[in-house]
Design a protein that fits this description.
The structure is a single chain. α10 packs across α11 (305-313) and α14 crosses α16. It is elongated, with a radius of gyration of 33 Å. The chain has a 3-stranded parallel β-sheet with strand order 1-2-3. Helix content is 40%, strand content 11%. It has 468 residues and is α/β, with parallel strands linked by helices. The protein is built from 18 helices and 12 strands. The protein folds into 3 domains: 7-201, Rossmann fold (3-Layer(aba) Sandwich); 209-329, Orthogonal Bundle (Glutamyl-tRNA Synthetase, domain 2), CATH 1.10.1160; 335-461, no CATH class. A hairpin with a 3-residue loop joins β6 (119-123) and β7. The longest helix is centred in the C-terminal third of the chain and has 23 residues, at 414-436. It binds adenosine-5'-triphosphate (ATP). Adenosine-5'-triphosphate is lined by residues 12-13, 15, 19, 21-22, 24-25, 166-167, 169-170, 194, 196-197, 204-208. Residues 414-468 have a biased composition (Basic and acidic residues). This is Glutamate--tRNA ligase. A motif ('HIGH' region) lies at residues 12-22.
Length: 468
């Protein structure tokens, strides 16, 4: 232990999965250590023999690692530090401050009798906290395990912890703990009791109350960066109001403990979801594809993986949305879907789609040339001659031959309709020319046309062309 070096610890109990409240405490300890150029120690507070398991411990460590919250020392386990507690009991016994008595269940336990029963301690976020009427309390339980307050103090003192950052539910424990520090002749660390993170219903996020775990978020396809960024904003604020950071590294550069707050913060799952969606959208397609691999039940279309990722990225909020979205763009297109989405204003767009998709195969939808002589590709007119929509001719299976046939719209027939389509197309093409400044591309005559707007996704949804 280096003299004068800041040392903080994160001390979870392995009695359940790591949830976002615990993770936020781990994050702030991590950031505090980074800010001070100090060390973060990980200590597993597993004195509760009945509820602690190695499985929960391993899962919590895995989640911390996934979040990128590395530690400098540990993990230490309280269950393996009996010598430290024995030495502390001895010291208190020499001072005449311990005695054996029956606990509430009638079993023999070791008690601490504090020298003083009132006083105060300083909390860096809350100022001086007075306490009074502290009663004798258990140091070592009847089964030989150290009680929480005693183990925490003996460990923090032995580990040279200089700052204790933890949730404010520990405020009442801290009064007992400072009496122990004083009785042991140890200097007290500086305390920072962080405001709690509450569920939307106002209850403390806690393992006992079934808070959603970090692992569940991971399985659902949240990005660790989104969780870190979100947790950072709960109980801390950036001087310039920033709420988005490139990653833990950038956050650590910007973080400063003077902006920590003592008020509770409500965890809003929707905001986390939005953040996640935004970060997914910002990922380069290759990176996103790699992250999606564990979530996909079948690979995206071969050779078009990145295209597929680009096509679904906008609609993805969590990575586990991917299989459904990939299916949506690769499954055969049901023309009824087109029909449902089309409105009267789409008539011009539809006519344009017909041109673009001509010659390509869409499963479940025959091109007009195959279904009706009236719209043979050979008859395709130029820009000035959009074809009228074909007459409604339902197939035997009830699926209309053309999506437009299912339109709940006035049929686009007759001169008036043709004129309307023509005007709509001209307006759109003119708009496109103005946009691109490239008449050929704008008119859709360029080689591998890439359509914009609503058509783009449709064109992507087409099965790969056999001649490509
Ligand atoms: N909702 C929360 N808000 C802020 N900090 C929290 C929250 N829940 C836990 N912490 C902090 O995280 C650290 C680890 O907590 P711990 O492992 O005891 O989780 P817990 O959910 O409080 O457990 P339990 O449900 O058993 O009470 C402690 O410092 C604790 O103060």
């Amino acid at each position: 232990m280096e003299d004068g070096k800041v040392r903080v610890r994160f001390a979870p109990s392995p009695t359940g999965m790591l949830h976002l409240g615990g993770a936020r405490t781990a994050l702030f300890n991590y950031l505090f250590a980074r800010y001070q150029g100090g060390d973060l120690v990980l200590r597993v507070d597993d004195t509760d023999r009945e509820r602690s398991t190695r499985g929960f411990e391993a899962a919590q460590l895995e989640d911390l690692e996934w979040l990128g919250l590395g530690f400098d020392e540990g993990p230490y386990r309280q269950s393996e530090r009996g010598d430290v507690y024995d030495a502390a009991v001895e010291k208190l016994a020499e001072a005449g401050l311990v005695y054996r008595a029956e606990d509430e269940a009638g079993r023999r336990a070791l008690y601490f009798r504090p020298r003083e029963r009132e006083g105060s301690y300083r909390d860096a976020l809350r100022g001086e906290i007075p306490f009074s009427r502290v009663e004798d309390f258990v140091l070592v339980k009847s089964d030989g395990t150290p009680a929480y307050n005693f183990a925490a103090v003996a460990d923090d003192a032995e580990m040279g912890i200089t700052h204790v950052l933890r949730g404010e539910e520990h405020l009442s424990n801290t009064a007992r703990q400072v009496l122990l520090y004083r009785a042991l002749g140890e200097g007290e660390p500086e305390f920072l009791h962080l405001g709690l993170i509450l569920a939307p219903d106002g209850a403390k996020l806690s393992k006992r109350h079934g808070a959603r775990s970090v692992a569940e978020h991971r399985r659902e396809g949240y990005l660790p960066g989104a969780i870190i960024e979100h947790l950072a904003t709960l109980g801390w604020s950036h001087p310039a109001g920033r709420e988005e950071f490139d990653g833990l590294e950038e956050l650590a550069q910007e973080w400063d403990p003077s902006r920590l707050g003592a008020s509770p913060a409500i965890f809003d799952p929707d905001r986390l979801l939005q953040r996640n969606a935004r970060r997914i959208r910002a990922l380069p397609a290759g990176d996103l594809l790699r992250r999606l691999e564990p979530f996909l039940d079948e690979p995206p279309p071969e050779g078009r993986e990145l295209l597929a990722v680009e096509a679904i990225k906008e609609e993805m909020r969590v990575l586990s949305d991917a299989p459904r979205l990939v299916r949506e763009i690769t499954d055969p297109v049901d023309p009824r879907t087109f029909a449902r989405e089309l409105t009267e204003a789409s008539v011009g767009v539809y006519a344009r789609a017909e041109e673009v998709l001509e010659g390509r195969r869409i499963e479940g939808w025959r091109m007009p040339a195959e279904s009706s002589g009236s719209c043979a590709p050979g008859r395709r007119g130029g820009d000035e001659d959009p074809r009228p929509l074909a007459s409604p001719a339902a197939r035997a299976d009830g699926v209309p031959q053309r999506a437009a046939d299912a339109l709940p719209l006035r049929r686009a027939r007759g001169r008036e309709s043709r004129e309307r389509i023509k005007r709509a197309r001209e307006a759109r093409l003119g708009h496109e020319r103005a946009d691109t400044g490239h008449p050929e591309r704008a008119a859709g005559r360029g080689g591998g046309e890439r359509q914009r707007g609503p058509l783009r996704l449709r064109a992507d949804r087409v099965q790969p062309h056999p001649h490509r």
